[in-house]
C-alpha cells in the first residue's frame, strides 16, 4: 500500500514520525488506515483565511479524494474510517477457487 502511494508521488511517513505532518499508512485489524495530518503552518493559514481559502477540513477531503481515487483505480476497496479522519482500505477476503469437475 505504501509503495503504491510513494510511486504516485505521495510522501508516506511512518507512525514513528507522528509529530511530522503528512500521509500515514497504518495496519489495523480490518485492513489499512490511511490518514493525513496538516502542518501547523497550514492550519494557521486556513484559520486566518477562513472563507477565502481552503479550510483544513476541505484540504483533508481533497487529499482523501486523491488517495481514494488512486487506490480504487488500483483495485482496492476504500471507505471512510469510522471517525471520519481517514480512509480504510479493506482487506480483501481471498477464497480458493473451486476445482471444476469433469
Quick recap:
This protein has about 100 residues and is of the alpha+beta class.
Distance between the termini: 40 Å
> Rounded to an integer, what's the Rg over CA atoms?
17 Å
Oligomer: single chain
Largest sheet: 5 strands, mixed
Order of helices and strands: HEEEHHEE
Total number of helical segments?
Answer: 3
Hey, roughly how much beta strand do the residues contain?
A: 15-25%
| Weakly predicted, low-confidence segments | none
Structural class: alpha+beta
Proportion in helices: 25-40%
**Kindly state the mean pLDDT as a whole number?**
79
Silhouette: globular
Main-sheet strand order equals 1-2-3-5-4
Question: What do you see in this structure?
Answer:
The structure is a single chain. With about 100 residues, the chain is an alpha+beta fold. It has three helices and five strands, in the order H-E-E-E-H-H-E-E. Strands 1-2-3-5-4 form a five-stranded mixed beta sheet. A hairpin with a 2-residue loop joins strand 2 (about 20-30) and strand 3 (about 30-35). The radius of gyration is 17 Å and the shape is globular. The mean pLDDT is about 80.
Amino acid at each position: 500500500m505504501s509503495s503504491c502511494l510513494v510511486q504516485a508521488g505521495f510522501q508516506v511517513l511512518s507512525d514513528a514520525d507522528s509529530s511530522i505532518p503528512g500521509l500515514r499508512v497504518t495496519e489495523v485489524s480490518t485492513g489499512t488506515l490511511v490518514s493525513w495530518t496538516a502542518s501547523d503552518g497550514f492550519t494557521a493559514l486556513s484559520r486566518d483565511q477562513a472563507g477565502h481559502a481552503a479550510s483544513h477540513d476541505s484540504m483533508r477531503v481533497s487529499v482523501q479524494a486523491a488517495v481514494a481515487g488512486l487506490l480504487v483505480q488500483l483495485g482496492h476497496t476504500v471507505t471512510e474510517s469510522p471517525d471520519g479522519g481517514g480512509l480504510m482500505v479493506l482487506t480483501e477476503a481471498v477464497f480458493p477457487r473451486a476445482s471444476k469437475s469433469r
